[in-house]
Amino acid sequence: MHLGTYHSTHGRNHAFKLSHLLLTCAHSMHLGSFPFKMLLLPLCTRPSLRITLSKPSLVTTSIAGIGNNKSSSSSLSFQISRASSISTVSTAKEDAVMAQDGPNNQHPVQVAKHLEKFKTTIFTQMSSLAIQHGAINLGQGFPNFDGPEFVKEAAIQAIKDGKNQYARGYGVPDLNSAVAARFQKDTGLVVDPEKEITVTSGCTEAIAATILGLINPGDEVILFAPFYDSYEATLSMAGAKITCITLRPPDFAVPIDELKSAISKDTRAILMNTPHNPTGKMFTREELNQIASLCIENDVLVFSDEVYDKLTFEMDHISIASLPGMYERTVTLNSLGKTFSLTGWKIGWAIAPPHLIWGVKQAHSYLTFATSTPMQFAAAAALRAPDSYYEELRKDYKAKKDILVEGLKDVGFTVYPSSGTYFVVVDHTRFGLADDISFCEYLIKEVGVVAIPTSVFYLNPNDGKNLVRFTFCKDEETLRSAVGRMKERLKGKLCN
Questions:
Q1: For the chain, which terminus, N or C, has the lower number of CB atoms within 10 Å?
Q2: Average model confidence (pLDDT) for the chain?
């Protein structure tokens, strides 16, 4: 039902008549009258009335399938919100409707000062454009295939067994024990599942709880750029001072001398990510030893995001907490989603000695309090998977990586090494676009493939303007289709 715009120019009687008409329609549609009565209360008091049950929008796509251009009685409409650096599309039809209604009396957007600089996340922006243009999404890092059956069955069984009420705040005992066992197997470190582990709603919440629980306003935290976008936002919420050390291609090595110079008396922590998103770099043992020495010498903490620890190709992952003298000053952060292709479950955890996990646990208590109960029991089953699962996982992702990397090289990109994660970073400048955002817009609109501009992962966007990130956490058919589109529509655009 679409009622468009109605002007109550003839007084209260017309408003009452329209109210009666709507209530009659509601009854005939079996919607019930109470919600409509609540909706229509203001009708008698407003000099101008606008009722819009169907709003003009920038994007309309079939609910049944993304990119389906066929008409459908069930459609999903939404408006894209973008950062100012990405061009927008005018909405003339909506403007015309608003003009009929008179001045726009919408309230201005309100946001706390420490979040004013942050726009809609780049992942939301690029995914919205992907839907609008029917593009293959190699941007956002979520698989287009499902997780293993044994893990899903464990979740179903937990629900059937009635494990559906609040979990213990810092994790159900079965999952805490499974996390501790996995950590011991991976690092050799024995941790107390009751006193040194906190289960969170994904690793993003583990990061937030760690920062909010251990960082005071004015504390300095060092990041390695490019960095996962939640790092800067959460540190801003905590009132931290952010110092960035830039990792540069081709190998994105840690500039140790620069890091040494950056550490000051105010430095509270280094927040690092290995295997590293977005570059695919893995910190070497030598780099980790040098970072550890600086932290011990200057009494600095480490917050280590290791969500891609099982997606490694050329070398084994090393947890910095396992190095001598480092467990007592490290919070290790991890999650289930990347390893088991279950990103929507949002099960993460933090591991740290009691004097550090206390702050994490306190912040977690007032962020989410507890994480999904049945999914925690299923996560415990997942973490007890045999070694063969992880071996097959790496083998499968290595094949996917090879398809994408070889394809990108054939198209003409400069492709940088990726030793871990499911991301590949490339230099796009041979195609003649001004920067990474311009290139990604062109890639979506003219080629039909989505990548992520990396400039959003730097404090200084110019440091990343030559780079874009692709993901290979898609099925092989999707990867081949994306490569095929780029070969057909992009390869000829090279500016040698």
A1: C
A2: 84
In a domain, 112, yes or no: no
**209 and 335 share a domain?**
yes
Q: Are residues 301 and 432 in the same domain?
A: no
What average pLDDT does range 225-232 have in this prediction? 96
Q: State the pLDDT confidence band at 76, using cuts at 50, 70 and 90.
A: very low
- 420 and 369 fall within a common domain: no
CA distances, 392 to each of 275, 305, 334, 339 (Å): 19, 23, 20, 11
Domain coverage including residue 160: 149-385
Q: Which residue has tokens 């992942």? A: 123
Find the range with the poorest average confidence among 33-37, 112-116, 380-384. Answer: 33-37
pLDDT grade for 199, boundaries at 50, 70 and 90 = very high
Secondary-structure percent of the chain, ordered helix, strand, coil, rounded to 5: 45, 15, 40
Same domain assignment for residues 408 and 380: no
pLDDT at 106: 78
The half-sphere exposure of 89 on its side-chain side, counting CA atoms within 13 A, is: 14
134 and 167 co-located in one domain: no
Domains of the chain: total: 3
pLDDT tens-place string over residues 261-273: 999 999 999 999 9
Using the 3D structure, point to which of 339, 364, 385 is the last residue of a domain.
Answer: 385
Instruction: Please give the Cα distance from 141 to 6 (Å, whole number).
Output: 45
Phi, psi for 317 (deg, rounded to 5): -75, 140
Question: Measured between alpha carbons, how far is residue 389 from residues 151, 283, 344, 415 in Å?
Answer: 12, 24, 20, 29
Q: Given this model, what pLDDT does residue 22 score? A: 38
Residue keyed to tokens 């933090």: 350
Residue type, 88: T
Mean pLDDT, rounded, for 463-492? 97
Pick from 365, 385, 405: which residue ends a domain?
385
Task: Identify whether residues 263 and 376 lie together within a single domain.
Answer: yes
In this structure, are residues 314 and 405 in contact, taking their beta carbons and an 8 Å threshold?
Answer: no
Whether the CB-CB separation of 120 and 111 falls below 8 Å is answered with no
At residue 493 the predicted structure's pLDDT band, cuts being 50, 70 and 90, is confident
Tell me: do 12 and 28 sit in the same domain. Answer: yes
- Overall pTM surpassing 0.90 (yes/no): no
Scored b (16 or more CB within 10 A) or e, 48-67 reads: ebbeeeeeeebbebbeeeee
- Its sign, for the CA torsion 420, 422, 425, 431, is positive
Buried b (16+ CB within 10 A) or exposed e, 475-496: eeebbeebbebbbeebeeeeee
